[in-house]
Structure formats: structure tokens, C-alpha cells
Amino acid sequence: MGRNAVPSLAKLLHTQVVIKMSNGVVLEGVILGYDAYMNAVLSDISEPEGMPFSVIVRGEFVESIVPVDKSE
């Protein structure tokens, strides 16, 4: 991969992931789509006492994206 290459999220599409943002926010949800800048649409996010919702995550603020291990 080149120095400025963006890793592909194709393997994580439609799977449950945890995204850690540069401001310390951690989101868990399902990746519905993404683009070449690693902007992503994350759905099925829920807060402790709230309804599930979706967000668009800006790729420049993403520190890590990790698939959720469903075996735990």
C-alpha cells in the first residue's frame, strides 16, 4: 500500500464494528457504506436509553476501525 493509500473497508461492509475517533468518541455500529476518503455511514448505533440511529463519520477523524468479535 502506498504512503497515502486508504485501506479498503470492503471486508467490513455490513458488519458490526467499533470506530474510535480522534476526539475520543467510540461508536459501535454496522458499516453501510464508505468512500475513498474513509468517510463511512454507520447504522444501528444505540445509546443506553435511546433509539438506534445512523451517522456519517468523517474519515479524517477516524483513528481505528475494528470488527466486533461476535463469539464473546
TrEMBL record:
<feature type="domain" description="Sm">
    <location>
        <begin position="4"/>
        <end position="71"/>
    </location>
</feature>
<dbReference type="InterPro" id="IPR010920">
    <property type="entry name" value="LSM_dom_sf"/>
</dbReference>
<dbReference type="InterPro" id="IPR001163">
    <property type="entry name" value="Sm_dom_euk/arc"/>
</dbReference>
<dbReference type="Pfam" id="PF01423">
    <property type="entry name" value="LSM"/>
</dbReference>
<protein>
    <submittedName>
        <fullName>Small nuclear ribonucleoprotein</fullName>
    </submittedName>
</protein>
<dbReference type="GO" id="GO:1990904">
    <property type="term" value="C:ribonucleoprotein complex"/>
</dbReference>
<dbReference type="InterPro" id="IPR047575">
    <property type="entry name" value="Sm"/>
</dbReference>
<keyword id="KW-0687">Ribonucleoprotein</keyword>
<dbReference type="GO" id="GO:0003723">
    <property type="term" value="F:RNA binding"/>
</dbReference>
